[in-house]
Design goal:
The protein is an alpha+beta fold. The chain has 2 domains: about 110 residues, 3-Layer(aba) Sandwich (Glutaredoxin), CATH 3.40.30; about 110 residues, Glutathione S-transferase Yfyf (Class Pi), Chain A, domain 2 (Up-down Bundle), CATH 1.20.1050.10. Helices cover about 55% and strands about 10% of the residues. It contains 10 helices and 4 strands; from the N terminus they run βαβαββαααααααα. α1 links the parallel β1 and β2. α1 crosses α9 and α6 crosses α8. The chain is globular and about 50 Å long. The relative contact order is 0.15. The mean pLDDT is about 95. Keywords: Transferase. GO terms for molecular function: transferase activity. It comes from Sphingomonas baiyangensis.
Length: about 230
């Protein structure tokens, strides 16, 4: 049976959606990052980077949400376009765009606004700008093609779905989705799928720590409490 290591953050939710779309039997294993379970020896043996999600499928051990999506999609031949070089190129390009652009810039946008020890204007401005710029590219793509890779729902749409629900919170703007009508359309469509409801339902399986107290901050952002680097 597949073992899926998760919490309710955007990246694990992409994988939860795909597992539910496929109807695969899996064991959902919570990793409570606010109490530091991601730093445990047992989890680092699965993911040396100490991040969720991770997945074990027989002898295959995977980490990074987009790698997991691509592995499962290729294995089961579901939610990927045809094998033509053109469509494969689009799939890989947009999946990596989400992995290296949308996710990191959105995450840093939140970090520097809410969790950095100093609320410095420049990084807040930079990451807000870059997060919006990346989301605008996604919105423009959806306006052209309906889905991220042509006319069919794919793992790239699942990757977008994992992050897009948090756009208003990430950008500190409750009306932010007004800027991205095509993303809003995609979210409404995916949210209406039974698999999306089942994916979100995994939250009921475990009571994760909710408080952002000092323990949580130390486990999520240890650099805040580390000594300043020595100069020279």
């Amino acid at each position: 049976m597949i073992r899926f290591f998760y919490n309710m953050a955007p990246n694990p939710m992409k994988v939860a959606l795909f597992l539910e779309e496929l109807g695969l039997e899996y064991e959902a294993i919570p990793v409570d990052t606010k109490i530091g379970e991601q730093h445990s020896e047992w989890f680092r043996a699965i993911n040396p980077n100490g991040k969720v999600p991770a997945l074990i499928d027989g002898e295959a051990v995977l980490f990074d949400s987009n790698a997991i999506l691509l592995y499962l999609a290729d294995k089961h031949r579901k939610f990927v376009p045809d094998d033509s070089p053109q469509m494969r190129a689009q799939l890989l390009s947009w999946l990596m765009f989400v992995a290296t652009g949308v996710g990191p810039y959105s995450g840093q946008c939140v970090h520097f606004r809410l969790f950095a020890p100093e609320r410095l204007p420049y990084p807040i401005k930079r990451y807000d700008y870059e997060a919006r710029r990346h989301w605008r590219i996604v919105d423009e793509r959806l306006a052209q093609t309906g889905y991220m890779v042509g006319a069919d729902y794919s793992i790239v749409d699942m990757a977008v779905w994992g992050w897009a629900a948090r756009i208003p919170a990430m950008l500190a703007d409750e009306n932010a989705m007004d800027e991205f009508p095509n993303i809003a359309r995609l979210m409404k469509e995916v949210d209406a799928r039974p698999a999306a409801a089942r994916a979100r339902d995994i939250e009921r399986r475990h009571s994760f720590k909710s408080e952002f107290d000092e323990q949580a901050m130390r486990n999520l952002y240890p650099q805040i409490f580390s000594p300043e680097p020595r100069q020279g």
